[in-house]
What does this fold into?
Amino acid sequence: MSDEIKKGLIGVISDETKVSEVMPEINSLTYRGYTVQDLCAKCKFEEVAYLLLHDDLPNSKQLEDFEKEERANRPISENLKSIIKNYPKNAHPMDTTRTSVSHMGLEDPDTADNSKEANMRKSMRLLAKISTAVAANFRVRKGQDIIDPDPKLGFCENFFNMCFGKVPSPEVVKAFDVSMTLYAEHSFNASTFTSRVITSSLSDLHGAVVGGIASLKGPLHGGANEAVAHMLNEVGSPDKAEKFILNRIKNKELIMGFGHRVYRNGDSRVPTMTEYYHKTAEYYQNKELPEISKILEETMLREKNIKPNLDFPAGPTYYLMGFDIDFFTPIFIVSRITGWSAHIMEQFENNKLIRPLSKYTGAPHRKIEK
It folds into this structure.
């Protein structure tokens, strides 16, 4: 056994998965063999969710049944609504979302059942209910009444309606739908690995998801989309963008939204999301944000040869849509629950406790002298 330490488990293959892969030969993220670009162009998010949970894309009957089940499970309990109304107003939405999911586990009739059938039912409930809980928190924090889910609306349209009381244009809904597909899954990232570690001890699905949410909150993972929006606001205008980045580089400050542990030739999701970022900006007649983004991207590439990741175009897209910045990462959860659930169920199917070793570097053996 090698004593070599791989900080951050860089390059370590800890298990195998059938859920997703970044294929180096085409520099693309794939979900069960399908490139995300193809899925964004030809499928809606509900089809992608089905793919991740059920191994393949649905036929028309399967999709109809899937959507019917998802829509039927959207309502959250009056008890959870009351809890959401009593969250501290200054609480971060990632913390309130984590707590909401934990409460859902208390209410779920299958919480203690780790069978494949029960975990699929729980996965569907979480897919349906997390968006409702996030939207309820979004409105309560603004002093507005909670809007119940509408079973006549599709997944993305319903989320907008629960947040804003209306459904935006088809162009905006499509951009949001694309972001949901691109954020749905990404192999053994930090939050997914966290969920699998928790699962490996034979804990329950809700507990594993709660752990995933806690991991996703960090700015080195899901919280990066929030950091990007704050950065764009700090830049303020295109004429200040290049100097802003040069100063950050000079001072060796962390610049969010750039670089990725897995991709070496650029995040394959970025071109698709950037296209819909620009379409969204055009719809809202905002030329300034894309121009700032362009200058930041070009400067980083010129100075550091580092390309942007998905958070770089996704953050400002959500900002243009009217979402509060600290809700960007909870929106990430609304999508990523599909990937987490797929990995949790895969872990249960061929489980082995994940328990790595560590190299002790503390004080040598010593005795208490007294």
